[in-house]
Structures are given as structure tokens and as C-alpha cells.
Amino acid sequence: MVEINVPGLAGLIVFYFLILFAGLFSKKFMQLLNGRKGAAKKTQVQTETSQLEKGLSDTDDLMLAGRDINYFVGIFTMTATWVGGGYINGAAEATIKDGILWCQAPFCYAIALICGGLFFAKKMRDMKYVTMLDPLQNKYGKELGALFYIPAFSGEILWSAAILAALGTSLQVICGIPESTSIMASAGFAMIYTLFGGLYSVAFTDVFQLICIFVGLILALPFMTSHDNVTTPLQDKLTFNGEEKSVFGTIKSEDAAYWVDHAVMMMCGGIPWQAYFQRVLSSKNASVARTLSVFAGFGCFCAAIPAVVVGVITLNTDWKAVIGHELTAGDYKLAVPLCLNSLCPPAVTFIGLGAVSAAVMSSTDSSILGVSCMFTRNVFQKVFYPKATDKHMLWALRGTIFFNTCVAMIIAITVKSVYGLYLICSDLVFVLLFPHLLLVIHYPHLINRYGMVFGFSIAFLLRALSGEPVLKYDAVIKFPGYAEGENGEVGHQKFPFRMVCMLMHLLIGLGVTQLSNYLHREGYLTEKLDVLKEYCNESNSDNNKDLVIENSYPITELKKEATNGVAITNGVAITNGSANGQTNGEMNGHGNGHTNGHC
């Protein structure tokens, strides 16, 4: 049994309570940051009126922080959402294993944020959506649109589990705390402040956490490089564990397609995540949303640099002299905690430990809140309980946060290959979700329900038949260059098959849409045969009535009062004779796009 490091444990407890305090009082802090010192003194009716002016209920306010995220908080929270324990530990591990060229995730996800800002943020924010699934439900209907919650849920939950597992490993190495205990404590603290503060808490604590990440890791680097058992200056080509390695790595010609496939998957598949779009939709306006995305992309790139340097330092360290034995392949994922624990003075070690813990909590709370918001709005309220009041929605959101935190925590404790499972879900987000988000946001007239169903189904089948080494099953469809497994192991694809599946999804969806439109125009696809109700105008209009014309939730508790010239009529704030939102096919309040007889 590993002896518990009491000073380290005490410091960690203090750090966690500071985070908790910041989270619980985040709303007041953010009001001060936004120059709204008098906001805390508003009456309840004034606060509700202000929310209605923006088309926000109390639940929406919790989800989107009043759509009041500014540049300062926004850049920090959007960057911290991606920079988690898996991000830091994974960057160091990839550098040790295959070199910097194969450390793709941090840099590809940084590009994904920039692309999201340039091509998606403005349109999403201008339409005043509440979640990433809103435009999909608006286009395909509430039931079909809710199907996209499955890959989104899987990716977010397994991402949370992966980074919680990374934290458990780190605390076990440095402090001697049992892995399960550290996972439960970290998840519990993140859940408490998220339950009560929503995005206010998550965004504000991200500011504190991201500062800890940068300060902790950058402070530790000089101490690591000055250790007696670290070769300086750091070498590019060296022998590590009896194997010739290059810090930069190499990409062989037969692996080039595999490298490109992964890079494109992460760059495009890194866009359709609710944790990202929640920051976009909570921004003050579309310009802020776009700017935050671009700057957060550069922030993520910068955050990966210290982790990559730790990987290089690990390769240049004589570990036999430091810990008594060489590192095995299974130890590579422990590079960051091992370097902090073995190469730094105790004080620096615990500052670095705070950095790793902060990274995990900043990503866990974001993912848990994001996936809970999608379920509460797009599944619970839109599909199962359309008449839910704002109070129902608030409790449903909190219950879902508690449930999802428990699920992520259990997976992190019990499943040993969580990071591999997360990669599978990132794969599915790219193959199944990205094509539809692209089409619905930019080319909604080119896709309909029939195209969505056929494209989605065939793409899922193609991906499933392409094999998956993480799940230990071989491919049925073997693309050119397939590497057969040895010694009973399954093989893997070297062909860019993920790109093929995604492109097939797009092409089949577009083709089937054109075919169904043709059959409808020619009178073959009659109302009786229109099983998906794509061409039934009345059905489509009713199906998405609450997504397009009405407020997100029936806010029955809010009083219809007139304050300072603002009249609240039928849930819509009207100032100086102009309505905050539009009808006639456009959304009000939240508005969710346009309708022209299609969902």
C-alpha cells in the first residue's frame, strides 16, 4: 500500500475548497467583472424581466450564464474546456511514444476551435440557439433530431471519464491517494458548484483553473531540466529503454494516410461538441463568440507546449537512477505526474499537482453541464414533456447533472481503457454528427429527413464493419493497406476509412434527399407513403412549433408586469413597440431558425 503524502493531501484539500468557493459565488463575481455591481440588488421581477428581454428562462440562464460571457472570461473558459488531464497527460505520452509529429490531438483540436469560430460560431449565435442540437431538431423534427444526442452523450461522458481517470492516476503517483477516492472527490466537488451555479460557476472557475495550469506547469519546467539525472541540453535523437528514438518522430509513407485520417477526424470532429457551443451561445454577441473561438484555439496550442516539453524531458531522463527502474510502455501515461514527483522540489510538485487537478476539473464540469443541458432541453422537454414549466426544467437539469456525474465517475473507476473508448466516440461524432451540423447550418435546403436517416444508418454500418482495435474486433470491410494482426491481436486500418465513412454519409444523405424530392414532385411519394412526414406541411409546423415560434419553455411563473417601459406579453418582452424576437417563420426569444414547411 502506497503511503499517503499528508502535506500534499492537505494542500489538495485547500485547493479544492478554493475552487468550490469560487464556483458557488461565481454569479456575483461575474456580475462584477461585467461591470454590473448593481445587478445583485435587482428585485426578482427586474431580474426575470431582464431574462425575458433576452428570451431566457431561469433554466436558460443557468445553461448560458445570461448570454453575458465577455472576452476575458470567455477566452479562459473556452480554452479550459479543452485543456483537461487527458489533454496534458496525452500530449506528453504521445511525444514519448512516437514523437511530436504524432502528438496530434492538442494541435488538431486547437485548429478545430479556430475553424468552429470562423465557420459556425456566428451563425449559431445569431440564431440564438440554446444547445448544439437545436438546429438539428429544427430541421429533422424533435424525435429524429434527438437521436444525435446518442453520439454527443457518449463522447462527452467518456471524455469526462477519461480525464477523471487521468487525475486518479496522477494523485495516486504523487500523493498516494487511492485512485477511486481521488476520482470521487474531484467529480463530487465539480458537481456541487455546477449544480448550483451552472455555466456561471463553470466559466468563472475556469479562469482560476487555467491560470493554475499555465503557472503550475511552466514553473515546474526549469526545475525538471536542472535535475542531475536529466540530460541538458535536451537531445533530439537518443536511446530510451534500449530503443533509438527521435523527439520529433517520423511519418513513414505507409502511415501517411493513417496520420491524415486521424488529423482530419480531430479537426472536424472537434467542432460538434456541446461544451464548445455552450460557450459560443453564451457569448454577448456573434462577434464575441467568433473572437473567443479563435483566441481559445491559440490558447489550447500554447497549453500543449509545456506538456510536450515534459514528454521530451522524460525521454532525456535516466529513470533507473531516479526511481530504480526504466519506464515501461505502460508508464508513459504517467509522465507528467512522475516528472512532477521525481524531478521537482516538494513545493513545486504540489503546485504542479494543482495544475493537473485544475485541468481535470475545468474539463469535467464543462462536459457534464453540456451533456446535461442537451438532455434536459432536447430530450426531456422537447420529446417527453413538452408542457414542462421552468421549475420542472430546473430540477430536471440538476438531476441530470447528478446522474451524468455518477456515470462518468463509475466508468472512470471501473473501465481501464477509458481513453480508448473516448477515441471511439470522437470517431462517431466525426462520422455521424459533423456532416449534419455542417449541412443544417450552411446548406439546410440540400438535406431532408430521408437523407438524414439513410445517410446516418449506412455511415454507422460502414464504421461498425471497419473494425476497432480498442474493442478487440477485426474488420469485416478491409480497406487497401489493411494491417493484419499478429499473435492473436486484431488488425487495424491504414487507409483513411473514417474520412470515407464521413464522405459517404454526406453523399448518401444528399443523394437520397434529391431522390425523395424528385419522387415527391412526380407524385410517387404521396402523403400516405411519406412515413417520415417530410412533405406534410401541417405536421412539420406542429412538430416544431415550440422550437420556432414560442419561447423555449412555458415560463408560467414569470409575472406579466411592465417595468421601465418593458411590457411582457405572452412570454415575449416588448420595448418601445418592438418585439424581442419575430414570428412568421422566424424564431423569437430563442428562436431556432426558419420554417418553410420543413422541419
Would you kindly provide a written description of the structure presented here, covering whatever features stand out?
65% of the residues lie in helices and 3% in strands. The protein has 23 helices and six strands. The strands form two sheets. The chain has a four-stranded antiparallel beta sheet, with helices on one face. It has a two-stranded antiparallel ribbon with strand order 1-2. Helix 1 (6-24) crosses helix 11 (179-225), helix 5 crosses helix 11 and helix 19 (418-442) runs parallel beside helix 21 (497-521). It is globular and about 80 Å long.
Summarize the structure.
With 599 residues, the chain is mostly helical. The protein is built from 23 helices and six strands. The longest helix is centred in the middle third of the chain and has 47 residues, at 179-225.
Task: Record the SSE blueprint.
Blueprint: H1 6-24, H2 26-33, H3 44-53, H4 58-64, H5 71-82, H6 85-98, H7 104-126, H8 134-140, H9 142-146, H10 149-175, H11 179-225, E1 237-240, E2 243-246, H12 256-269, H13 274-281, H14 286-315, H15 319-323, H16 335-343, H17 346-384, H18 390-414, H19 418-442, H20 449-465, H21 497-521, H22 537-543, H23 545-548, E3 562-563, E4 566-569, E5 572-575, E6 578-579
Antiparallel strand pairs: 1-2, 3-4, 4-5, 5-6
Helix pairs in contact: 1-11, 2-11, 4-11, 5-11, 5-14, 5-17, 6-10, 6-14, 7-12, 7-13, 7-14, 10-11, 10-16, 10-17, 10-18, 10-19, 11-14, 11-17, 11-18, 12-19, 17-18, 19-20, 19-21, 20-21
